[in-house]
Design brief:
alpha/beta, Nitrilase/N-carbamoyl-D-aminoacid amidohydrolase, six-stranded mixed sheet, 12 strands, 14% strand, globular
């Protein structure tokens, strides 16, 4: 029995790591479990070969992603939902597998027949460098995942700490990657301390030296966070914004017979909201059933609404532009857009979404793999990515704001382009109706928290069915539910008062000026280390062949 448990130990620890990671994501939010994930993963690969570490890492990562991304099963397209859930989880798990493989190659003592003895023999300074390298490799993986093939940075481990406000303020320097780095460094150091304490139980204080460097770093980061919180600039003025949440199920959005009732609901909710005399009216992503720019009835109704209440509006809608002389689909490009409409009903400016959702807004390689259209709800049509960032300006209320549509706010590298020195806040228009009443809404909001901190601008979220709210510059969520209840998914509207800093006291963060510098450095170090490993392997093979 004991021999069987020893044989199963690596797999049990890998599964425990996956469970801890998956259960630490919002809204389960057992966020303390996330700090254990790297240590449990290293425990799984003790005495294992790099190839086995790769498999163990994938198993743990796959389980974690299955738990975190289970909301994909709510997509009202069953075959595509199941395939997408499994395929995406399997893909993201590759990064955890690669991390463990690289760590084992970086720390060969882990795969030794007697790893604990080898670990202790390495010395305290070497073990510290190993912990730092492990954290560096983890961040490199998160950076690569955020950019490769369009990117999917949905589950950075640092985001699990979104409620730990003092700690996450370090994001204004390093981005969310700095939080991930600290967590992995702490966990690997705790793993090291555990090995030392196990092998040298009589030297009770020896293991503490393993933790001192990372604890000192955490204290410094917390001190930075507390200093930032105390030094928050005074409010210059507040902007009163009406946020409409229609809560339309995705199946009805696809049903053209429901277009009129959908639009009527938007207008009715807006009438109620505008009775409070807000400065700005906001509708969520793709909320207008027909194109405002080209459908006369839709454009007229919206114009009459803003004229009646003398209000500016930001609305999410499809848009189009002719790019060719003919009448074929190839002569027209379609966009997922946000339109800024002035109180006369004139479309003053617009923003077209840049980062599109694969298989949700476009199908890659459709020309060569036409069967892919049967696994998505969008058929053969799709959107064209926008040309660049959008900062919209409302002169009458002296407000400028950057726009992010759908899941663009999960990408650390996109938000800085939508903020300049004169930008007052960010707006995210999104439609999470795809996922029903699921965890996706909370996970999405947690990710957006870091965009507010990284750029020190409030971020206003207007959603179809969940977490319509706003985030302050310290990353705190406000006005998350309707009234005194806890419901976030229902239909309604919210009137939020967003504080804006005086123009002379707007903060420009180091991260905004140098986005992703820290993650890029980690990626460079990791690629260099990987190159050295591959070069040594090639030399070894050449020497054996000779």
């Amino acid at each position: 029995m004991q021999a069987r448990l020893i044989k199963l130990r690596p797999w049990l620890l890998a599964i425990m790591a996956g469970l801890c990671w998956g259960l630490s994501t919002p809204k389960t939010s057992w966020n303390g479990l996330a700090w254990m994930v790297p240590a449990l993963s290293l425990g799984a690969v003790l005495g294992q070969s790099p190839a086995r570490a790769l498999r163990l890492g994938w198993i743990g990562g796959f389980l974690a992603q299955l738990i975190a991304l289970r909301w994909l099963l709510n997509i009202p397209y069953p075959s595509g939902a199941i395939i997408g859930w499994i395929a995406l989880s399997a893909y993201v798990a590759l990064y955890h597998a690669a991390w463990l493989w690289l760590v084992v190659r970086t720390i060969p003592q882990l795969s030794h027949a007697d790893p604990t003895t080898q670990w202790l023999a390495a010395g305290r300074a070497t073990r510290l460098s190993w912990a730092l390298l492990a954290a560096t490799h983890w961040v490199a993986g998160e950076m690569f995942l955020a950019r490769f093939l369009g990117g999917f940075p949905w589950t950075p481990i640092g985001v699990t700490q979104y409620e730990l406000i003092p700690l996450i303020q370090i994001s204004d320097v390093t981005g969310v990657y700095g939080v991930s780095f600290l967590m992995v460094w702490f966990s690997v150091s705790a793993f090291s301390a555990g090995l030392v304490a196990t092998r040298q139980p009589l030297k009770q204080r020896t293991w503490m030296w393993e933790m001192i460097p990372v604890l000192a770093a955490l204290v410094l980061c917390m001190f930075h966070g507390l200093r930032v919180i105390r030094a928050t600039p005074p409010v210059g003025r507040t902007l009163k914004i009406a946020l409409v949440q229609p809560s339309i199920p995705q199946t009805l959005i696809w049903d053209e017979r429901e277009n009129d009732s959908r639009f009527t609901k938007l207008l009715n909710l807006s009438e109620l909201a505008l009775a409070t005399k807000p400065d700005l009216l906001v509708w969520p992503e793709a909320s207008v059933p027909k194109m405002v720019r080209y459908d006369l009835a839709t454009g007229k109704a919206l114009a009459e609404l803003v004229q009646k209440h003398n209000v500016w509006a930001v609305v999410g809608t499809d848009d189009a532009a002719r790019v060719g002389p003919g009448q074929t689909p190839a002569d027209v490009e379609y966009y997922n857009a946000a339109l800024l409409i002035d109180p006369t009903g004139f479309i003053r400016s617009s923003y077209n979404k840049r980062n599109l959702v694969i298989f949700g807004e476009y199908i890659p390689l459709l020309k060569y793999l036409p069967f892919l259209k049967y696994f998505t709800p969008i058929g053969e049509t799709g959107f064209t990515p926008g040309a660049g960032p959008g900062i919209l300006s409302v002169p009458s209320i002296a407000a400028r704001f950057g726009v992010l549509i759908c899941y663009e706010d999960i990408f650390p590298q996109l938000a800085p382009d939508s903020v300049d020195d004169d930008t007052d806040f960010l707006i995210n228009l999104t439609n999470n109706g795809w996922f029903g009443e699921a965890q996706a809404q909370w996970q999405h909001a947690a990710l957006s928290i870091f965009r507010a901190i990284e750029n020190r601008r409030p971020l206003v979220r207007c959603c179809n069915n969940g977490l319509t709210c706003w985030v302050d510059t310290l990353g705190r969520l406000h006005d998350t539910s309707f009234g005194s209840g806890s419901d976030i998914y229902g239909e309604g509207f919210k009137i939020v008062e967003v504080p804006l800093a005086p123009a002379t006291q707007r903060q420009t963060t180091f991260y905004h000026t140098h986005p992703d510098w820290f993650a890029a450095l980690c990626l460079l170090l990791t690629v260099t280390k990987l190159g050295r490993i591959l070069w040594k392997c090639r030399r070894r093979k050449a020497s054996l062949a000779g």
